[in-house]
Every structure is written in structure tokens, then in C-alpha cells.
Write a structure and sequence with these properties.
The chain has one domain (33-255). 50% of the residues lie in helices and 30% in strands. It has helices at residues 11-24, 39-71, 76-79, 82-102, 125-143, 150-167, 227-231, 237-249, and strands at 3-4, 30-36, 106-121, 175-186, 191-208, 211-225, 233-234, 251-255. It has a six-stranded mixed β-sheet with strand order 3-6-5-4-2-8, with helices on both faces. The protein is globular, with a radius of gyration of 19 Å.
Length: 256
Amino acid sequence: MSTSTQNTTPISSVGDDVNKGKEDNDPQTIFYLNRILAASSQQAIDTPLEDIWTTLYFWAPRIEQTVQQQLGNDDIHEHHSLKASWERAAYRVRLVDHLARTTPWLMMVRDNSAAPSDEKLIGEYHHDKMIYQHAVSDYLQVNLPADVPVEKLQIIERYITETIVLGQDITDKDLRFALVYPLMIETGISLQSGVRVITFTFTTKHPDESTKVVSISKTIYEARINKRLFDGQTFDQEYLALGKGLVADATFDFFA
């Protein structure tokens, strides 16, 4: 039995929300990793991973719709403020993590949270940047496959850490980032396609007037496709096309 996942909002309206998101030019907070294999191996892995990429394309317009509905502001000056921009950017991370956990055809494989760590900031660029960089780098190295090139991760790490240092005094709200990695998961019986979502949340605290501390929280959520449930979905192709463009803009390819 087929279940329709088609969007009930007119596609033109969805497109408007997607375009507004692009025009806002908010900090990038979601990064997709795309593993490219040698041609002989790629063909075998492409078909099952198509299900995950379709899922990500389905998520992307929903994220933009929700951001515009919840955080779209009619006041043009407030809407384009750095504070509003960061709030929208952080909200996208909450949404991608939520969708990973609630999409009906995704079955949880693991759900881990690292204990939050508190680090003292001194307001000096290089010192504070290294605090953030160590936190991001250490967690990614442990929770991503060894074949993900270090230089590719370093590009993402530098972007995240430099963006945080520049944005940490703009808003008192949490700063969030996510990496989304489609992959094949060993179930003990077979290989199945799945997705790993890693999130970072940076919360600034002031224990007293002269002290500034950042609390760093990290999570990893992994889920696999339930092929029967996925194959029972009917997707709006125009909607997926919008999502594919959004995902492509935030995707980092790497060769393994």
C-alpha cells in the first residue's frame, strides 16, 4: 500500500520559502558528506543510498518552510539582523536532527549524547577558536569513518570554529551545527543504507560578570532505512527537486 508524502502546500509557495532562505544568506550550519567510491564499487552502493538522498531531499524544503513560518519576520530590519540570521541557522540544525528521529521509514540504530563540557573563554580570537576547534575535531574523528579525509573535515571544522568565534557575541541563543552523513550500515545479516547525524550545540554562560564560559554539547544519531516503508512512499518530484538543490549547495564530496 502506497502512502503519499506529497507536500500539501502549493509548490510555488514552497519555492518562495526556499528562495527566501537563500536570500537570507544565513551562516551555513548543516553540512552533508558524500562519499564517492571507485566506479566499480560506486555502482553497487549508489542504488541503496538513493533512498537516503531522497529522504534528505525531502527534508530540505520542509526545513526551509518551517524556518520561514516560525522565524520569518515581517520587520525587514529585524529579519536581516545578525541575531535573527543566527537564530534561523541554529533552528535548521534542530529541525534536521528532529527529522532524523521522527521520519517514519527510518529505524534508530544508535542515539548517543556526550556529557556537556564547560570551557572558559577569554575573548581572544586564537585562544577561543582553539577551544571550539578541539571540541569539533575530536568528536568528528571518533564518530566518522577513518576513510573520510582529514583535509575535508578540516575545511568544515575551520568554517564552524571561525564562524562561532565571530558570532558568539551576536546572540545569547545557542549556536548549533550538524553533519549529515549517508552511509551503509552493517546489520549482521546485510548492508543497509542509513544516515548519521552529528550535532554540536554551543551555549554561552556567564557565571559572574568577569567570566565567560561555553558549554559544548555533542550528539550522534544513526538510523537505517526500512526499505518496505520507504518503498511505500509517493514523493512529489518537484518538491524533491527543490530539496536536491538545497542539499547540493551544502554537500562536501570526498573520494574513498
